[in-house]
Amino acid sequence: MAERGQLPPPAKRLCCRPGYGSACRPGQRAGGAGPGSGALCAGPSSAAAAAALGLLPLGKTQSPESLLDIAARKVAEKWPFQRVEERFERIPEPVQRRIVYWSFPRSEREICMYSSFNTGAEDPAAALGGAATAPGGAADPSAAADENRLPFRRGIALLDGGCVDNVLQVGFHLSGTVTEPAMQSEPETVCNVAISFDRCKITSVTCSCGNKDIFYCAHVVALSLYRIRKPDQVKLHLPISETLFQMNRDQLQKFVQYLITVHHTEVLPTAQKLADEILSQNSEINQVHGAPDPTAGASIDDENCWHLDEEQVQEQVKLFLSQGGYHGSGKQLNLLFAKVREMLKMRDSNGARMLTLITEQFMADPRLSLWRQQGTAMTDKYRQLWDELGALWMCIVLNPHCKLEQKSSWLKQLKKWNSVDVCPWEDGNHGNELPNLTNALPQGANANQDSPNRPHRTVFTRAIEACDLHWQDSHLQHIISSDLYSNYCYHDDTENLLFDSQGWPLWHEHVPTACARVDALRSHGYPREALRLAIAVVNTLRRQQQKQLEMFRAQKKELLHRGVTSITNLEGWVGHPLDPIGTLFSSLMEACRVDDESFHGFSDFTDNMGQCRSLEYHHLPAHKFFEEGESYLTLAVEVALIGLGQQRIMPDGLYAQEKVCRNEEQLISKLQEIELDDTLVKIFRKQAVFLLEAGPYSGLGEVIHRESVPMHTFAKYLFTSLLPHDAELAYKTALRAMRLLVLESTAPSGDMSRPHHIASVVPNRYPRWFTLSHIESQQCELASTMLTAAKGDVRRLETVLESIQKNIHSSSHIFKLAQDAFKIATLMDSLPDITLLKVSLELGLQVMRMTLSTLNWRRREMVRWLVTCATEVGVYALDSIMQNWFTLFTPTEATSIVATTVMSNSTIVRLHLDCHQQEKLASSARTLALQCAMKDPQNCALSALTLCEKDHIAFETAYQIVLDAATTGMSYSQLFTIARYMEHRGYPMRAYKLATLAMTHLNLSYNQDTHPAINDVLWACALSHSLGKNELAAIIPLVVKSVKCATVLSDILRRCTLTTPGMVGLHGRRNSGKLMSLDKAPLRQLLDATIGAYINTTHSRLTHISPRHYSEFIEFLSKARETFLMAHDGHIQFTQFIDNLKQIYKGKKKLMMLVRERFG
């Protein structure tokens, strides 16, 4: 990069001809002259300036620019050549040459604009700079690689590589060849390039490379830059018609014949056709005086604009839209919009032309009608593209210097699009009834029209309304044209004063409309004018803010006594379709950005080459209309704070609400880039105080409407910014912002006596807050930020806790805050903060109470965490939650999680408890367990027994609770589980008792041979068998009554016949009794029940049997036979049973054949 005061390297230098660009330095040497020129840039102190730049030795002088060149340059810029010819009968050849010479574009800025997308820098100059730089100044290789692929960059490379040749300028036509070097896979190619130009604009381009794109190819760029940088090396001829005019007949014939000879294959048919028509007296060609000349320049009627391939613009937009947001198409469309803004900033008429082409393709998108038919919303990114489209049309129609016929044409086109059924609405899928652009509030007979009767506002509505705006107001003209416009005759007796008490100009207009004017001025390349108007608008807002505060203070007692409020702003500025606050902020920030030369107009393009842009912001010298110590930076920050703090209603519709959140976060993100100093802190203090005291004008007023947009995100930023400087004010602001009235049942009512009360605007809409979950998460973030900051401050922690408990209504967010507080309180590098731990516990207890009677999938996690938190607080906290368990936990949670964790060894070790403390805690746990068992024996009895094992009285009480509940409220599975527990603990008789109770609740049908209770039944029978004959005799009738499944009964029967009952006694003594007889009770009863079960099951299975189950059925009969044969007459019974089957089911021949084969 060249040092300041030195020229850049020659290969990259922009060789400036006299008059090349408005920012050409006075006295800078021209890169070369055209025929007969040799002129230099004129200007005051040219020699000194040139010497300072190292171009001339001191003491040397330069010649002033010739009058011929000055005049020719002006004519070449403004007049079509036909007008010159008509104005003067004979134009001397030197004059023609200079006009032709100066008619080619002199600025590389436009060549860059028409050959590449802007890759991200606001200033198009960035595309001409050196390697792209990442934040901090380091080179970004990927960005540099992307930039080098741009046609403009490639064109420079081709020019620097000497690839441009045979350059010839004939009149207003430039031609040449550009050689594309051989690549690895492609041979060297030569491209023929032709460029037509008029009044310093390229009007058409052709290249044999066959480029199909919106932008000029690299070959066109290379040839154009060759002509700009090396004009003295280009052969310049007058238009070909002038040359032909100087030839006699013989010369003309020779010229034509040679031309045909050289290009006979291409032009011979055309030449013969033209000759025939010229020789025919009545031909059309002979009816016209003269002949066309493509090199003769523009006619008077020709539009003077840069070449834009309209067909390619339409094709590219159609392609991007068809990709539906995939493959980076959304990014490409945004780049197209950025290109339109770039053109507008250059005051290029193609900006509106290109936007028209883009809009036509957007309106033709087939998805619009599909979405409308299906009632589905378009995607968020696509919606944002439509927003940008509408905003651009606003800029175009607000062009301060557009002609009336242009505006009329645009209005007609906008109304046409606006009337199409599928034209997207401004606020997504909901029509709104926000004020008209030119009127803050609708007045008169139509003001109270019902919403359904009003037409929906589309994305074009504001642009259509803006067509009625004009710039002829004398006060407005004075504001934007002068830094010295003021008036010190001040009378504070009217609301819409033109000047404030200091004589500074004010601009009273609907704020979004006034800001739309600022944006239009910026967009059309009038940054100074935009800045002046922005300052006037901000000063007006500040004066209004002061007046609002005075008005509220006068009415404060009455309003607060009634507890009502009114909305003064039906249209919020943050999230507004025109983004008024963002516009003011950006305009002011641009003015204080370091090294932003582009702000002062179109700077010399070469000065920006190879320089990385600084993003630092400074307090630049004071403007006339600033208070002492103020700057553009303080004004930008203050207007952002004013906008963010405005009380405004939550708009209808998901998209509009998301936009409010998104714009607020974007604006805060920009504010966070600014480093606060003492001056800015004063601004923050001033605005925070206003927001707290301004009543209905502020979103942080004492009483706000229930549907006001919450201030959580903004308040969090204010809190973190003010905390190091004024903690009291920071907490006061954040605590005021914590409320979320839309979720409160006792929110302030509306003031129906005020004409602009929100209830009359948005009737019966609660709670249509689609972004409520996001809002609640922001509320949680604000609370978490305060908790973190308040660590170690008991008073502040108590205040924050109270605010959380009062204002946060989401259990999940309170739980998150409880967890956050716990983490902050127990950081590894410091002692636990006991106050913050108590806050964490209090929040946890609140969560428990909130979720006790509702379903919550995180409930178990919450309960476990609460016990952990209480453990950290201390033994008294654990004892407290057990004493009050019924307000916090379900009986199951209290026994299975809380009491169990409290009684664990890890808790005892963690708390370092002595024996007395352990016993006290255990006593509380046992009391809790018994209470839970009484309340919910089904789910808590087993846990209660387990917890009471070490206390005989408590254990006996728990067992009695189980017995009392067994006959009514407990299921067989619960009783079996407790019975097995009793056996395991060495109480077999109690286990037997519970098992018999469980059997009375059980019912196993014939086909439930895989029932989960089978193992419990087998265990119960085995337990009874081991206890003795009496116990077995008592349980078998219960089994017979409850179990109808043959296979289960036969299994029980077989097990009972293997060993003697009571074989292992209660005390382990082996019993030497005899095996029980199958012919006597109780086994006879079991055997008969088993045989009966087999018979019933067989008939039941045969009713619906299919051939694929025949073999399985035969095996079933085999098992049945084994059971039959256990009886003394079992053989006879089984034979009779088989004979009956053969008789009853003789229709099932195949099956009966299998039965006979197996059983006879």
Automatic annotation (TrEMBL):
Q: Which residues form the SWIM-type domain?
A: 191-228
Task: Output the InterPro entries linked to this UniProt entry.
Answer: Znf_SWIM, ZSWIM4-8_C
| Annotated Gene Ontology cellular component terms | Cul2-RING ubiquitin ligase complex
Q: Name one Pfam family in it.
A: ZSWIM4-8_C
One GO MF annotation is: zinc ion binding
The UniProt keyword set, sorted, is:
Metal-binding, Zinc, Zinc-finger
Protein name in the entry: Zinc finger SWIM-type containing 6
Q: Which organism is it from?
A: Strigops habroptila
Q: What is the lineage of its organism?
A: Eukaryota, Metazoa, Chordata, Craniata, Vertebrata
